[in-house]
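User: Sequence in, structure out. Go.
Assistant: Echoing your sequence, followed by the structure tokens.
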Amino acid sequence: MLLSGYIIVLILIFAEVLNILVEKVNDKYIKNAAANPPKKVLDIYSKDEIAQSSFYHIDKSKVAYYENVMHGILFFSLLLLGTFQWFSSELIDTFGNEYKMAFIFFLVFRLFFGLIGLPFDIYETFVVEKKYHFNKITPLLYVRDLLVGGIVSFAIFTVLLFLVMFLISSAGRFWYIYAAVAVFMFSMLMMYLYPTLIAPLFNKFEPLKDKNLKEKIFKLAEKAKFPLKNIMQMDASKRSSHSNAYFTGFGKNKRIVLFDTLLQNHKENEILNILAHEIGHYKLGHLKKILVFMFVSVFVSFFLVHVLISSDFIYDALGFEKSIFIGLFILSFLLAPADTIFAPLFSSISRKHEYEADKFAVSLTGDISGMKEALIKLHKDNLSFPLPHPVYVKMHYSHPPLPERIYFLEKIREQ
């Protein structure tokens, strides 16, 4: 590895340390906020509820902190010691076929770091989540999910990897344009196939049993001129007591999926407001805007890959032999710090969309109180801490903190 390579690694380490420091600052802020909660939070949460949600956040944050530190130490140690370089060179000398080398390299890489992360995931699931009465999954089901999820995830990753490699080697100097379009279209296909092919591998889906609620949801969708085809309920409670709802599908084939935990814990008017919020995202074109942002991100990423992968500099600096799969591997970690730059922009857009969807929901249902109750119960049931550090919100929060959403709804009431 050349001096320039060590400088690159130092920059990457600095970016990782910066992210960890931001997390620790947020943890300290949450502890102080929980000890001295402001009135705007006490109007929503009791002191015991604030304390419990802060303990939950801190416990999960500790697990993530130790996992990130362990991952960072191992990754950069293997890079600086030349282990990645040695392994990739052995593959090149042994096989010579880019697709075989890529498959073996990334399989070993994902297995190794997956095993490193496994104890942390087990601890979080069976200790932290159980401590706060969220975990319902059995060890046998956990192992099944781990194996099925790992196989499906790697299969999808391999298809995308081979597709990009093929385009790099055969599509000429403008391969990055074709790759961006191909990856984007593949992502659209997976969004369409996920509810019918992948999700049923993990959960049981059945038509909503509550006929009265089903009728009201269809009436709500009809009022919003939202083309709803199916309303399903999902057996989320066999894994966790966390609650949620989501929409899937495109065009006239839209489906609502309700967690059974949501049906158990929320009143009818609260569920209708939650769904009105989700309908708002579709009606206001938020999905289309996110897809455009996603395509631009994919295109920019592949363009940067095109610029860097064509040069010998980056391989020489880091001590790798030049090949397509190694170029993609190098760029996968070189571009990681870019997330720190673009994440605040995406988070800002997402939070704006949440406010807009809240406003749409109350205009559709005419039930501001029901919307407030739904948001408060969702946050409390999931132990979401209501007052994170403002900088952390700007960097990572796709949804506004609860007090800000409640204040926004109150302003709508006053209009």
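User: And one key feature?
Assistant: The first strand starts at residue 205 and ends at 207.
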